[in-house]
Specification:
The complex is a heterodimer of chains A (103) and B (230).
Chain A (H helix, E strand, L loop, with lengths): L5 H23 L6 E2 H13 L18 H35 L1
Chain B lengths: L9 H28 L3 H15 L4 E2 L4 E3 L5 H7 L1 H18 L8 H24 L5 H27 L6 H38 L1 H6 L5 H10 L1
Antiparallel strand pairs in B: 1-2
Classes of the chains: A mainly alpha (103), B mainly alpha (230).
């Protein structure tokens, strides 16, 4: 099996280009707040329906994270769950593959 | 792609729930069958599901000056099909509606339809179209992932346009407005996501080709060819 790193290289370039694009937009675009597109969408709903944003009440009562810190904590938790799953399984597969070659 | 709680009239919430529920039931049924049939499928489900967890928690900045998150559904769609993917997405979206106030219980149906059903279905269509052709596996993974991501956001735009047609121009002009917010922001994210997940697929291919062959994801010949290729 020959190792070539074409995909790694492409992924690296894509990520760097993405970061460069972000730096460029954040430096040149005035009024770019980088708010979530979900919230921008909600703003448009208010505009289209003519109902003020505050008047949209949850249909089913909903718990909201009391602050941005707690929200980012829970988002990090979500990513951590994913990371543990992926890391665990790749480690498991790696061990399996090594044992197979050792036999 | 989340529609926020309270931002969809209850009639539409009901419509999307009615569409989502049978898909979820089919997904749970398929999931049981796959896991009972092959114990090695569980780790693969862990990896592909793990990427949905991670990627949907990353809110990335985009060229439009707003942030949005990728969906990560491509790998799961290729490995297990759209219905099982819908079940994993439902779990993630439930977590986000209960603890993060992203989406909500009434709009959960609509959000499952966009992220878990339509996006993956489009991706699955592309995969089935390209699977038995000579198109490179990694290009297939890239296209499936990027398009599943894009069409998730197109669906969200459509869901909102259906509920809120503009006074002048109606559904179409409202759809274009929502596409301007959701889909345009998503283009660079979808491209990066596609390349990154194609790279991840390479590692799965390298470490565990047998499970992909047993699940019939790609033919044996094609997997062997891809392994020696890159």
């Amino acid at each position: 099996m020959t190792y070539k790193y074409t995909l790694e290289l492409l992924a690296g370039i894509a990520i760097i280009a993405f970061c460069a694009l972000f730096l460029y937009t954040s430096a040149t675009m005035s009024g770019a707040e980088f708010a979530g597109s979900d919230n921008v969408g909600s703003g448009l709903i208010a505009e289209l329906s003519g109902i003020p944003l505050e008047n949209f009440q949850p249909l089913i009562p909903q718990w909201e994270p009391p602050s941005g810190e707690i929200e980012s904590c829970l988002f990090a938790l979500q990513a951590a769950i994913g990371g543990i799953l992926i890391g665990g399984v790749f480690g498991f597969w790696f061990g399996q593959a090594r044992r197979k070659t050792a036999e | 792609m989340h529609i926020m709680e309270g931002f969809l009239p209850w009639q539409w919430c009901l419509v999307w729930w009615i569409i989502a529920l049978p898909c979820l039931m089919l997904g749970i049924y398929q999931l049981k069958k796959v896991l009972n049939g092959d114990r090695e499928a569980l780790p693969l489900l862990g990896v592909t599901g793990g990427f949905i967890f991670i990627l949907s928690s990353l809110k990335l900045p985009s060229v439009t000056g707003s942030c949005s998150h990728p969906t990560g559904t491509g790998l799961s769609t290729i490995s297990f099909g759209p219905w099982i993917t819908a079940v994993v997405c439902a779990i993630v979206l439930l977590f986000q509606s209960l603890f993060l106030a992203h989406g909500g219980l009434s709009v959960l149906g609509a959000n499952i339809v966009s992220m878990g059903i339509v996006g993956p279905l489009v991706g699955y269509g592309i995969y089935r179209l390209l699977r038995d052709t000579s198109v490179n596996i990694y290009i297939t993974v890239f296209l499936v992932t990027a398009l599943a991501d894009m069409f998730t956001y197109v669906t969200t735009s459509l869901e909102l346009a259906l509920a809120y047609p503009a006074e002048t121009g109606g559904l179409v002009s409202s759809f274009i407005l929502f596409m301007g917010i959701f889909a345009v922001t998503q283009v660079p994210l979808a491209i990066v996501e596609g390349i990154v997940l194609a790279l991840v697929f390479k590692y799965i291919l390298t470490l565990k080709p047998d499970i992909l062959i047993r699940l019939g994801v790609f033919s044996k010949e094609k997997i062997e060819a891809a392994r020696s290729e890159i």
